[in-house]
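Bumping with the actual sequence this time:
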Amino acid sequence: MFFRQIPAKDASLSYYFGCTGKGRSVAVDVVLGDEAWYLDEARRLGVPINFVIDTHVHADHYSGGRSLAEKAGATYCLHESAAELTSMPFAALRDGQVLDIGNTQVRVLHTPGHTPESISLLVTDLRRGDAPWFVLTGDSLFVGAVGRPDLAGRERQYAATLYDSLQSKLLSLPDEIEVFPAHQAGSACGAGLSGKPSSTIGFEKRWNPLLSLDRATFIDRVVADIPPQPPQMEIMRRANLGLAA
């Protein structure tokens, strides 16, 4: 299995990984303008890009997901609930669905709260073993923080949903599972993000100040700490949905 984490200047973190042995790969949360890097890396490795996934409809940067999928002849994917937001074509991912990336398996976890369509991706390298190795948490769980819940204008409702997603889908994973989020310090997608680009479930359980709170306190704390909205947020979100400005 190969694995690449790609930092962007806006504090976004994107990913490219897969199986060279069986020639399959997936790109996740691609930033617009970075498509050529993925195409070059795929050619260098001799591995086609099969899937391009956005963990949610981004509102802080322009997504290069659809563009890369078109250039690579890959399948562009979002969670199935994104169909309520847009009529643009995409492959609808379901909670619990497993994508075959050769000796790499990617299980879809629906983790709404930051947005309704947010997902995390639990990854297993079958050559290493049957147990999952790491999880890409999108904007649901960061190192030292969690995603902001206000982008749809229902802060308390979405904060409650985020609490449930974290507790039932992510914090229930084994402590040794590595965590790779979609942002690090400097992002407007949450408050208090660490500059460290990865963690583990166990470390976050112990040190992330929001994860030991009860549900009511979590909601109050997350809503109280919402940072200013990203500049041109609605313009970027509409563009990422394939809608006119």
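The tokens above came from a reply further down the thread. Residues 155-170 form the longest helix (16 residues).
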